[in-house]
Amino acid sequence: MRKVLYTAILSLFTLTASAQVALKTEGQDPQYVETIKGRAQKIVNTLGLNDAQVAENVRNIIANRYFLLNDIHSKYDKKTQQDALQADLYKHHFELASALAQYLTEEQIEAVKDGMTFGRLKRDYQATQDMIPSLSEYEKKQVLIWLKEAREYAMDAADSKGKHFWFDKYRGRTNNWLSARGYDLKKERDNWMKRTAASPK
């Protein structure tokens, strides 16, 4: 009985994983669709997927996410309906990771998130460590936590400007926190620039 149940569950999972994910292009401009497909494909190309059907499904999931975000942001007046906009974005926020989890590992899902946010998390995290080599493990962890939080907001932004806004906002929070902990950020930044200039090209 257990073997039959296990086989049935495995078959159901295999069927779900291999089912084709359709592009939700209704109402979208054809040129915009091609642009988004290309953008999503660039992210998929970094994931090392060997199964063509899985790769296409992941591309379509990412593309559909862009279509959804475009639809949501287009529905609301940014000046008068911010609360409604944010509520709508939050309602759908976790759908992307949930859909990708059928096909990708956690590490690959992280790569998708980085791809959708211009790799700012890794760059900003590395830059902070390069600027202040004396950061404790606790401080590094807190910086990374805030960068991950910034990335979650950035993923729902309407455009590249909005995505960068969230990382810049959290960088300000991080800098204020580090200053309160006794770091002279101007001095740290100046020393970093000197180290960079002196390092071999």
List keywords for this structure.
mainly alpha, about 0% strand, about 200 residues
Task: Describe the secondary structure blueprint for this structure.
Layout: H1 2-18, H2 30-44, H3 52-75, H4 82-92, H5 95-100, H6 106-116, H7 120-131, H8 137-155, H9 160-180, H10 185-198
Helix pairs in contact: 2-3, 2-6, 7-8, 8-9
The major sheet is characterized as: none
Uncertain segments of ≥5 residues (pLDDT<50)?
Answer: none
**Span of the ends, CA to CA:** 66 Å
Question: What is the mean pLDDT?
Answer: 92
Number of strands: 0
**Helical segment count:** 10
What is the CA-atom radius of gyration, in angstroms?
Answer: 21 Å
Query: Which class of secondary structure composition applies to the elements?
Result: mainly alpha
Strand content: under 5%
Sum up the overall morphology in one term.
globular
* Percent in helix: over 70%
**Run of helices and strands:** HHHHHHHHHH
Describe what this molecule looks like in 3D:
With 201 residues, the protein is mainly alpha-helical. 75% of the residues lie in helices and 0% in strands. It contains ten helices and no strands. It has helices spanning 2-18, 30-44, 52-75, 82-92, 95-100, 106-116, 120-131, 137-155, 160-180, 185-198. Helix 7 (120-131) packs antiparallel against helix 8 and helix 8 (137-155) runs antiparallel to helix 9 (160-180). It is globular and about 55 Å long. The mean pLDDT is 92.
What's this model, at a glance?
75% of the residues lie in helices and 0% in strands.
